[in-house]
Design goal:
Blueprint: H1 3-25, H2 28-32, E1 35-44, E2 53-55, H3 57-69, E3 81-93, E4 96-107, E5 110-124, E6 127-140, H4 149-152
Parallel strand pairs: 1-6
Antiparallel strand pairs: 1-2, 3-4, 4-5, 5-6
Domain SnoaL-like: 5-134
Protein name: Nuclear transport factor 2 family protein
Pfam family, one: SnoaL_4
């Protein structure tokens, strides 16, 4: 592993942290800045009524704006904290990488839902950005505060 490899992996981890903290705090500009212009963000392994797919920064921004505005009802949590744990990052080229990262979301009820991200990253200028994020959910609490919120924000 080279110094450039280490720097790339740390830059990717920084993007993941920015995504998580910006998303939890609904800091839309910071959230959208984590993605390439042509990024895709989609769900997998979720019930059909909660599936989503957004293509491009503009669509991702519009989705976050709906969350912030509370359109269709939001989750009702007084706080949301997505915690990232294991992140397996594979550099696939000088400007490309893949990652698999486990996450769990905490809300007022404690552990609310959990899963993992399957990501493709692309280096754009001096930043590593998410080009494609697949959000997979493995588990959710019976009283998850997010159960209806995702469907309501589409």
């Amino acid at each position: 592993m080279t110094l450039d490899d280490l720097l790339a992996r740390e830059a990717i981890r920084d993007t993941m942290a920015q995504y998580t903290t910006a998303g939890d705090r609904l800091k839309i500009d910071d959230f959208v800045a984590c993605f390439t212009e042509d990024a895709v963000m989609e769900s997998e392994h979720v019930p059909a009524d909660r599936a989503f797919r957004y293509e491009g920064r503009a669509a991702i921004r519009a989705w976050q704006e709906r969350w912030l505005a509370g359109e269709g009802g939001t989750h009702g949590a007084s706080f949301v904290r997505h915690h990232l744990s294991t992140a397996k990052i594979d550099l696939t080229g000088p400007d490309s990488a893949r990652a698999r990262t486990y996450w769990v979301a905490w809300t007022d009820i404690g552990p609310d839902h959990a899963g993992y991200y399957l990501d493709s990253f692309r280096k754009v200028a001096d930043r590593w950005l998410i080009a494609h994020r697949r959000v997979r959910m493995d588990w959710e609490a019976d009283n998850s505060l997010f159960r209806s919120a995702v469907a309501n924000s589409r």
